[in-house]
Design brief:
single chain; alpha/beta; Purple Acid Phosphatase, chain A, domain 2; six-stranded mixed β-sheet; 8 helices
């Protein structure tokens, strides 16, 4: 059953007034300040990748995607993950695109030395192909991103795989049935195609920027993306939401914590310094709409 998403009245009101961002200095102090740690302080040991290795010590995976060059949101997510005892990190792709810090975000992901899959913005930002597939806002942002990335960074993006096995679960940016076609999973029917190619009990994906949870038992159902206990005999296709550009009418960054020992998955929402992100977008000459939409969560 497809469940419509509604604006949650408990969501904190977004703090930014875009009209005040036209000047070089915001007219009001940032209401949700986020500490800005050095990038080196956020690195973590490489996540061990094996489908058969036993769990010798408690593991907690912070699984995130669709960072989209939003440095402030990404820093806030990593700090929240650390505060919640994350031991491993996994990236679902689309590190770059839309926002103004593609190089910094890419280097932070590289420093984590974690499993990463390729997203459509990662693919296009590393190439010089035609951008007719993208809407005008995305195309303009990708072209700008191409101009910012170094050749080494483009080579790293180009080498990423489209799907991967991490321990005992799968990760993909878009769909398992055709991961290079960048289809969207937004319904039970969409999910059924990926379930047909899912060889693990659990798969995490991104691309839609909306947290979702599909469960296959006798039939496929969408359940609330808040917290889950992974049950034997069922399969799960789970969207972690977006770090850098959520589209579920909640401006806060979204990611997932997965704890294999307790078979639990928890979606988390994290406030960040949205005004700084918006100011950077405007200062970079990127479309104003890319700044305003962050506050709307769409």
């Amino acid at each position: 059953m497809f469940l419509k998403r509604h604006l949650n009245p408990a969501i904190p009101r977004q703090p930014a007034n875009l009209a005040e961002l036209a000047g070089s200095t915001p007219s009001a102090p940032v209401q949700h300040p986020t500490p800005t740690p050095r990038l080196s302080a956020l690195s973590t040991p490489h996540a061990k990748q094996t489908a058969t290795a036993p769990c010798l010590s408690p593991m907690r995976y912070a699984i995130f995607g669709d960072i989209h060059a939003n440095l402030e949101a990404f820093q806030a997510v990593l700090l929240d993950a650390r505060a919640n005892d994350a031991t491993e990190y996994v990236c679902l792709g689309d590190i770059v695109g839309y926002n103004a810090d593609p190089c910094a975000c890419l280097e932070m992901v590289r420093d984590l030395q974690c499993p990463v899959v390729k997203g459509n913005h990662d693919e296009q930002s590393a190439e010089w192909t035609d951008l007719a597939y993208f809407n005008a806002l995305a195309a303009r942002a990708i072209q700008w991103t191409r101009d910012q990335l170094t050749q080494s960074q483009k080579d790293w993006l180009r080498a990423l795989k489209f799907s991967r096995l991490v321990r005992n679960f799968t990760i993909v940016h878009a769909t398992l049935d055709s991961p290079t076609s960048w289809g969207y999973v937004i319904s039970d029917l969409d999910a059924s195609a990926s379930f047909s190619y899912q060889c693990t009990q659990l798969c995490f994906y991104g691309h839609t920027h909306v947290p979702r949870a599909y469960v296959r038992d006798v039939r496929i159902n969408e359940v609330p993306a808040s917290s889950l206990i992974i049950e034997p005999g069922k399969k799960y296709f789970l969207n972690a939401g977006s770090v850098g550009q959520p589209r579920d009418h909640d401006w806060r960054a979204s990611y997932v914590l997965y704890t294999p020992a307790t078979h639990t998955v928890e979606w988390r929402r994290v406030e960040y310094d949205i005004q700084t992100t918006q100011n950077k977008i405007l200062a970079a000459g990127l479309p104003e709409r890319l700044a305003s939409r962050l506050a709307e969560g769409r």
